Amino acid sequence: MSSPVVAYVGLGSNLGDSIGLLVGAIRALGGLPGTSVAACSGFYRTPAWGITDQPDFINAVAELHTALAPHALLTGMLGIERHAGRERGAAADRWGPRTLDLDLLLYGDATIDDPGLDVPHPHLHERAFALVPLAEIAPDAAIPGRGPVRDALAAMAAGDIEALTYVAPPPSAAR
């Protein structure tokens, strides 16, 4: 494994105990080999995107310091999703309800266009539900080819996103 890279993971859920699922996922991310959770945004209630006839989502973003390569990190993230009861692949799953959704938003300053892995997340700059929590913990993070997170967020409406009073566990509790 190489020296740690800063990566940002978007978390979302709208089925079951969404807050509990996100807390468990944050802990599981910190348990991946060579990985620690350095920061976590608060939790936000966001309207469903894509298929809108479904429950609101709870979203957050975690900052990881990881020695895992991007594909190995993605494999770990997919395992965490499966453990939470999510199986990717169904066409309805793309924007439909889910127990847990983990997206690799940024991996250092890397730009990756591989089958199954696009970094930065190809629609990050268009999705307030990811930008609002990301801007909370990393407003100056650069979206390769787009600029700072804060600028992407400033260019869109985010008034329908509600900060929850629940606060995500601090990084030390996320392990």
Report on this model:
The protein has 175 residues and is α+β, with helices and mostly antiparallel strands. It has one domain: 7,8-Dihydro-6-hydroxymethylpterin-pyrophosphokinase HPPK (Alpha-Beta Plaits, 2-Layer Sandwich), CATH 3.30.70. The protein contains four helices and ten strands; from the N terminus they run E-H-E-E-E-H-E-E-E-H-E-E-H-E. The longest helix is centred in the middle third of the chain and has 14 residues. It starts with a strand and ends in a 12-residue tail after the last strand.
Topology of helices and strands:
Layout: E1 5-13, H1 18-30, E2 35-40, E3 44-46, E4 57-66, H2 70-83, E5 101-107, E6 112-114, E7 117-119, H3 128-137, E8 142-143, E9 147-148, H4 149-154, E10 162-163
Antiparallel strand pairs: 1-4, 1-5, 2-4, 3-4, 3-10, 6-7, 8-9
